[in-house]
Amino acid sequence: MRQLIRGRTLSFYADPIDTETAYIYHEDGAIITQDGRIKAIGPYADLYDPALPETDHRPHLILPGFIDTHIHFPQVQVVASWGAQLLDWLNTYTFPEETRFAQQGHAPEMAEHFLNLLLAHGTTTAVAFCSSHKASAEALFSAAHARNMAMVAGKVMMDRNAPEGVLDTPQSGYDDSKALIAEWHGKGRQRYAITPRFAITSTPEQMQMTGQLVREHPDCHIQTHLSENRDEIAFTLSLYPKARDYLDIYETYGLLSQNLLLGHSIHLEPREIARMAETGSRAVFCPTSNLFLGSGLFDAQGLRDAGVVSGIATDIGGGTSYSMLQTLNEGYKILQLRGQKLHPFAAFHWATRGNALALGMQDQIGTLDPGTAADLVVLNSRATPAMALRMARAETLAEELFILQIMGDDRSVAQTYVAGKPMLPGMPG
Ligand code: GUN
Ligand code: ZN
């Protein structure tokens, strides 16, 4: 099936921090999609074809769908839990909630809600932690597969320091992960992420078997948490007294590579930063979560200068919004507190091509390049009266993007396409 989608198209081919000419923008642009992929992009006048069905999104912007590189699927009912920092928050709210995913029917129901929420916020790919129950990952993968959404996910492995109902064992964590990889990794658009939750909840035996999984499946992603909170770091180092630092635990078990996504990565030692750069391990910035849990201020510029690639993510349910626009908003404010700047072009690059680069998936998602998936978000910069009033004073594309970044949320998402298919009912597309 071929179609033409018309609007103001914006896609990045480089990081705006490195170069002034990083994007291609067509004021009256068009995308032709065929069989779920982008076939062509250019000015509407060049691509117009009377034989094609046409959807006109003008005056809205059309960008690659947002990518969320760190989110917890079993925490949709944890968001906005009051009054705690990381370790108390996990023990009081999060672990008990995740035990519910053992109940028959709960994970499939939540998976539908989760994917509906992602799409309503313009997110077309997420890198998701599931609960420790194999069925939670099965539910998410099958729901994403049914919608043809590119999902990277894994069941968390955790065998200590949490309630019985969310614990696995080194052997069952290994076996369940292995079975999920066999069934889902590379099936349609699904990819598996080997997921040791963090060092606190894994014994050395489990970390050892995690390393084995990583060696046996070198093309899987790996996701975990690193240096989010000072108490977490102190507890972690007490559990692994031989480790030189927090990262050294993951290093000892052979987890460091370009496939590794290290959520938070806030309070890092110079040695850790150097090893992340040398091994290509990715940091993932989770602004709304870091503010909500009072975790700390991510050093985007410092990591970048050291050669570390970073993604940006919501971290629901420590994070407070599914919106990558709101994530960029809070990211901007965190970097302000650090004396750093997040320019709107850099911000929109980060949430699209930048996150695709962090995943090594830039040939599939994150741009509007021909040959990549037709995963799109259509953004309305005048979605609310306050935005419309502010937009009346905007003269440049950068100003418009910044208004979306600071004031936008799901109300600004006019449509979301997954593999060429409009996913929001009742919206044009
Ligand atoms: N560290 C280990 N587990 C979690 C989690 O679920 N959320 C956050 N924010 N940090 C974690
Ligand atoms: Zn997390």
TrEMBL record:
Q: What organism does this protein naturally occur in?
A: Paracoccus shanxieyensis
Keyword terms of this UniProt record: Hydrolase, Metal-binding, Zinc
Give the main EC class. hydrolase
The function of this protein is:
Catalyzes the hydrolytic deamination of guanine, producing xanthine and ammonia.
Q: List, in alphabetical order, the GO biological process terms annotated in this UniProt record.
A: guanine catabolic process
A GO CC annotation given for this chain: cytosol
Q: In which pathway does it act?
A: Purine metabolism; guanine degradation; xanthine from guanine: step 1/1
List the molecular function annotations (GO) for this entry.
guanine deaminase activity; zinc ion binding
Q: What is its EC number?
A: 3.5.4.3
Q: What is this protein called?
A: Guanine deaminase
Superkingdom is Bacteria
